[in-house]
Amino acid sequence: MLYGDRVVESPNSVIARTARLACAVILLSAVGGWALFQRRGPGGLGRAAVLLPVAPSVNAPIVDPAGMTIGSRFAPPPGYARVAAGPESHAHWLRSRPMKPDGAPVRLFNGSLKARQDVHAAVLDLDPGTRDLQQCADAAIRLRAEYLYAAGRMDDIAFHFTSGFPCAFSDWRTGHRVSVRDSDVRWVTGGGNDSSAASLRRYLDLVFTYAGTASLPRDVESVAAGAGPEPGDLYLHPGSPGHAMTVIDVAVRGDDRVMLLVQSYMPAQEIHVVRNPASTDGSAWIRVGEGPVLVTPEWRFAWSELRRFRPPR
User: Fold this and answer.
1) By C-alpha distance, which of 196, 153, 148, 158 is closest to 178?
2) Which of 140, 172, 141, 142 is nearest to 155 (CA)?
3) How far apart (Å, rounded) are the C-alpha atoms in residues 276 and 295?
4) Are 139 and 246 spatial neighbours (Cβ–Cβ below 8 Å)?
5) Angstrom distance (rounded) from CA 251 to CA 261
6) What are phi and psi of 41, to 5 degrees?
7) CB contact set of 235 (below 8 Å; sequence gap of 6+)
8) Contact 236/307 with Cβ under 8 angstroms?
């Protein structure tokens, strides 16, 4: 419509143009999301408008509160797929770990609440014991041992004490017990044959007592850059204090990897999936290699501190 010396759109034209723009936005969103970018040229802003694809957010809170395993509670971020895992693999076993109901708090070994309840995204349904034993390294040891036990590989369950003593479940389940007198550590006879899950749990309490982040380097090996992480790997900082966290799941998109991490802490407590502290929406997936160090709610690791349990000898 010509109005004076200006062209004025009629109300019907404005409505039609707005509708077309809305349809375009919806269409672009449906195919994965785009960003409108105006290039700067010699003539200034607005020389050309270019549509650039926007990568899906790693921090999208894709959580199913009804899911009762790692795999069913946490969907991969948009555009990512979980790493392939056979039914007998460590990755499959870890993804099938049972979870407490969504929103459950983290409790200590004595039943009291952990002081910080802003650290976790979910809690594994796995008792922490009744003594102050299952701390950080112990959680990694337990997840490794219970997987091997479930896979029928009992003779592969073995961990070192901080003293260097090798403590194998194959000795324990055949009736041997450990005698510790100062620096003298040895196997002695004193128990019956017992390969039950309850026997494994007692064995693990013994390992928790004498092992830790300082002993784990004897049981793990470094992971070459670009070769992980994989489910079952761990980030390990030995020492006193030190810390260890297990990679419980991994998803990929091309060369890009994201992971879920679990931990216990001090004092002994339930194993829990940690949040990504860089996320603004409480997501648990962490992008591998993002930032100079791996930042978790209660610890920072060098990316080079990724470790993998040694193959059985």
Assistant:
1) 158
2) 172
3) 8
4) yes
5) 12
6) -135, -170
7) 243, 244, 245, 247, 261, 294, 301, 305, 306, 307
8) yes
- Work out the angle at residue 188's Cα, subtended by the Cα atoms of residues 185 and 194, and round it to the nearest 5 degrees: 120
Let me know: does 206 contact 171? Beta carbons within 8 Å. Answer: no
* Longest Cα separation, the chain: 107
pLDDT digits (tens, 9 = 90+) for 165-216: 999 999 999 999 999 998 899 999 988 999 999 999 999 999 999 999 999 9
Tell me, what DSSP letter sits at residue 273? E
Q: Which of 144, 139, 137 is nearest to 90 (CA)?
A: 144
Structural tokens at position 143: 């997840």
Alpha-carbon gap, residue 103 to 80, rounded angstroms: 25
Place of tokens 């509670």: 73
CB 102 within 8 A of CB 73: yes
Stated pTM of the model: 0.80
The span from the CA of 50 to the CA of 132, in Å, is: 59
Burial 198-237 (b: 16+ CB within 10 A, else e): ebbeebbebbbebbbbebbeebbeebeeeebbbbbbbbbb
Rg over alpha carbons for the chain, rounded to the nearest Å, is 26
| pLDDT above 90 for 251 | yes
269: nearest Cα among 162, 151, 115:
115
Give the span between the Cα atoms of 218 and 14, in whole angstroms.
72
Long-range CB contacts (within 8 A, 24+) of 163-172: 163/210, 164/215, 164/218, 165/210, 167/203, 167/206, 167/207, 167/210, 167/211, 169/145, 169/200, 169/203, 172/199, 172/203, 172/206
Rounded to an integer, the average pLDDT of 5-22 is 38
Segments of the chain assigned E as strands = 2-3, 6-7, 34-41, 44-53, 81-82, 120-123, 158-160, 166-168, 176-181, 184-189, 220-222, 234-237, 243-253, 256-263, 272-274, 286-287, 294-295, 300-301, 306-309
For the chain, the residue count is 313
